[in-house]
Design a protein that fits this description.
Number of strands: 2
Strand content: under 5%
Shape: elongated
Order of helices and strands: HHHHHHHEHE
Number of helices: 8
Strand order of the largest sheet: 1-2
Structural class: mainly alpha
Radius of gyration: 23 Å
């Protein structure tokens, strides 16, 4: 009979992530088949735990990084936008700056100001005067500037971004 540790190792080595995948792969391995039959009611939990155990070192390392470190680490990853996001964002912000009709100069959207606010918020984390709030009419690109930053840090974020 297979141990829990051996089953967890087998799940990761076989790259199975669901109950059905485990059941399909268990046909070819007698000890896995016996384990699956014995723990059929807890199978999803055991598979989830195997992946949690496998991913724990990377998650601990990621959790120890600041939000800004996550952004810098993302620079090393392959680009999924073909290097278009920054030029598009800068073009969008320059159009917003040209169309700005507000009274307060500090609210004028500019590329350096938006970049500085993002860096400050990601470096210092959530706190008084460290949050980013974008406002404006519909379809003016508010989410375009924030969504990629949020995507870098889906869980455990200590940054406050809001759009309205």
């Amino acid at each position: 009979m297979m141990s829990h540790h051996a089953f967890a190792r087998w799940v990761v080595e076989s790259n199975v992530r669901s109950r059905k995948a485990v059941l399909a792969a268990a046909k070819n391995n007698e000890s896995v088949f016996q384990y699956v039959c014995k723990y059929q009611n807890e199978l999803e939990q055991k598979v989830a735990f195997a992946w949690e155990l496998h991913d724990a070192p990377q998650e601990v390392e990621r959790d120890s990084m600041s939000n800004w470190d996550c952004v810098l680490a993302a620079r090393e990853s392959p680009c999924i936008c073909n290097q278009r996001w920054i030029p598009l964002t800068e073009e969008l912000l320059s159009k917003q700056e040209a169309a700005f009709r507000g009274d307060l100069l500090q609210e004028r959207p500019s590329v350096p100001a938006i970049r500085a606010v993002h860096v400050k918020c990601l470096t210092l984390g959530r706190g008084k005067y460290n949050n980013v709030y974008c406002y404006g009419p519909r379809n003016c690109g508010k989410s375009h500037t924030i969504d990629p930053v949020i995507a870098l840090r889906l869980s455990g974020t200590s940054v406050s971004f809001s759009v309205s």
